[in-house]
Amino acid sequence: TNFITVKTGSEEASNFLYQELLNHGVIIRPLRANLMPDHVRISLGTREEMEHFYSAMEDVLPRYLNKYGR
User: Fold this and answer.
1) How far apart are CA 5 and CA 8, in angstroms?
2) CA-CA distance, 53 to 63, in Å (whole number)?
3) Could you give the strand order of the β-sheet that contains 3-7, starting from the edge strand earlier in sequence?
Protein backbone atom coordinates (compact mmCIF):
# COMPACT_ATOMS: atom_id res chain seq x y z
CA THR A 1 0.00 0.00 0.00
CA ASN A 2 1.32 3.43 -0.92
CA PHE A 3 -1.46 5.57 0.49
CA ILE A 4 -3.24 6.43 3.71
CA THR A 5 -6.92 7.11 4.26
CA VAL A 6 -7.84 10.02 6.52
CA LYS A 7 -11.26 10.64 8.05
CA THR A 8 -12.20 14.30 7.68
CA GLY A 9 -15.56 14.22 9.42
CA SER A 10 -17.74 15.30 6.49
CA GLU A 11 -17.94 15.44 2.73
CA GLU A 12 -17.67 19.23 2.94
CA ALA A 13 -14.42 18.92 4.92
CA SER A 14 -13.06 16.40 2.41
CA ASN A 15 -13.84 18.77 -0.45
CA PHE A 16 -12.25 21.67 1.43
CA LEU A 17 -8.99 19.73 1.91
CA TYR A 18 -9.03 18.58 -1.70
CA GLN A 19 -9.49 22.09 -3.09
CA GLU A 20 -7.07 23.83 -0.71
CA LEU A 21 -4.30 21.29 -1.30
CA LEU A 22 -4.94 21.39 -5.05
CA ASN A 23 -4.35 25.15 -4.86
CA HIS A 24 -0.90 24.27 -3.48
CA GLY A 25 -0.23 21.76 -6.27
CA VAL A 26 -1.00 18.72 -4.11
CA ILE A 27 -3.54 16.21 -5.38
CA ILE A 28 -5.43 14.05 -2.90
CA ARG A 29 -8.50 11.98 -3.66
CA PRO A 30 -11.87 12.48 -1.96
CA LEU A 31 -13.44 9.05 -1.49
CA ARG A 32 -17.09 9.89 -2.20
CA ALA A 33 -17.12 7.47 -5.15
CA ASN A 34 -15.99 4.73 -2.74
CA LEU A 35 -18.97 5.47 -0.47
CA MET A 36 -16.66 7.15 2.03
CA PRO A 37 -17.50 10.85 1.57
CA ASP A 38 -15.92 11.83 4.88
CA HIS A 39 -12.51 10.40 3.95
CA VAL A 40 -9.66 11.37 1.64
CA ARG A 41 -6.88 9.25 0.22
CA ILE A 42 -3.34 10.61 0.41
CA SER A 43 -0.77 8.84 -1.73
CA LEU A 44 2.74 8.58 -0.40
CA GLY A 45 5.52 9.82 -2.64
CA THR A 46 9.17 10.65 -2.78
CA ARG A 47 10.81 12.57 0.04
CA GLU A 48 10.54 15.80 -1.99
CA GLU A 49 6.86 15.20 -2.75
CA MET A 50 6.10 14.50 0.90
CA GLU A 51 7.97 17.62 2.00
CA HIS A 52 5.84 19.61 -0.43
CA PHE A 53 2.72 17.96 1.04
CA TYR A 54 3.80 18.78 4.62
CA SER A 55 4.48 22.39 3.64
CA ALA A 56 1.03 22.68 2.04
CA MET A 57 -0.61 21.10 5.09
CA GLU A 58 1.11 23.60 7.38
CA ASP A 59 -0.66 26.34 5.44
CA VAL A 60 -4.04 24.60 5.01
CA LEU A 61 -4.45 22.90 8.38
CA PRO A 62 -5.05 26.03 10.50
CA ARG A 63 -7.92 27.09 8.20
CA TYR A 64 -9.30 23.54 8.17
CA LEU A 65 -9.24 23.36 11.99
CA ASN A 66 -10.84 26.78 12.29
CA LYS A 67 -13.64 25.78 9.95
CA TYR A 68 -14.20 22.11 10.88
CA GLY A 69 -12.50 21.58 14.22
CA ARG A 70 -10.58 18.45 14.95
Assistant:
1) 10
2) 16
3) 3-7, 36-43, 29-31
